[in-house]
Amino acid sequence: MDINIAEVLDEVRAAFDRYERALVANDVAALDDLFWDDPTTIRYGGGENLYGIGEIRAFRAARSPAGLERMLDRTQITTYGRDFAVASTLFRRGSTPGKVGRQMQTWMRTPAGWKVVAAHVSLIDDK
Q1: CA atoms of 43 and 95, how far apart (whole Å)
Q2: What stretch of H or E contains 6?
Q3: In what order do the strands lie in the sheet containing 99-110?
Q4: What integer best gives the mean pLDDT of the chain?
Q5: Cα–Cα distance for residue pair 120/15, rounded to 1 Å
Q6: Coil, helix or strand at residue 118
Q7: Looking at the DSSP assignment, which residues form a beta bridge with residue 108?
Q8: Buried-state track 10-21, b at ≥16 Cβ within 10 A, e below 16
Q9: Residues 100-105, mean pLDDT to the nearest whole number
Q10: Residue 127: pLDDT over 90
Q11: Measuring CA to CA, which residue among 95, 88, 112 is closest to residue 32?
């Protein structure tokens, strides 16, 4: 299997960057578009376990748009072949001093483009 094919890595990086812009702008439509529209899509969050795109959409629609700005650190994207990737990053927010967030996303190429099929977000003490 080819790891980090340059053009595939560029494609996933562009999708990841689009996700980040949509997240901090609370662009719910763009966020929904970046997640695979399927009942098997999962998102584990800081205080919620969301199974299926319906639960993920409901969470996003109800979430406050305040305090979403963040600074990323140690972002790493790894592609496996041409259709699968994992994006991992740390993040910090002014609203949570002394904490570091961790985000991992599993991306899959679909006929509609790159989509998140699984995501995990958590917050721990920043050491």
Answers
A1: 22
A2: helix 6-25
A3: 49-51, 42-44, 113-125, 99-110, 84-92, 71-80
A4: 97
A5: 17
A6: strand
A7: 84, 115
A8: ebbbebbebbbe
A9: 98
A10: no
A11: 112
Sequence-separated (6 or more) residues with CB below 8 Å from residue 97: none
- Torsions phi, psi of 33, nearest 5? -65, -30
Give the separation between CA 113 and CA 8, rounded to whole angstroms.
Answer: 12
Give me the half-sphere count of Cα atoms (radius 13 Å) on the Cβ side of residue 34.
23
Whole-model pTM: value is 0.95
DSSP code per residue over 8-75 = HHHHHHHHHHHHHHHHHHT-HHHHHHHB--STT-EEE-SS-EEESHHHHHHHHHHS--TT---EEEEE
13-70 pLDDT, tens digit each: 999 999 999 999 999 999 999 999 999 999 999 999 999 999 999 999 999 999 899 9
Q: For residue 43, give both structure tokens.
A: 């998102």
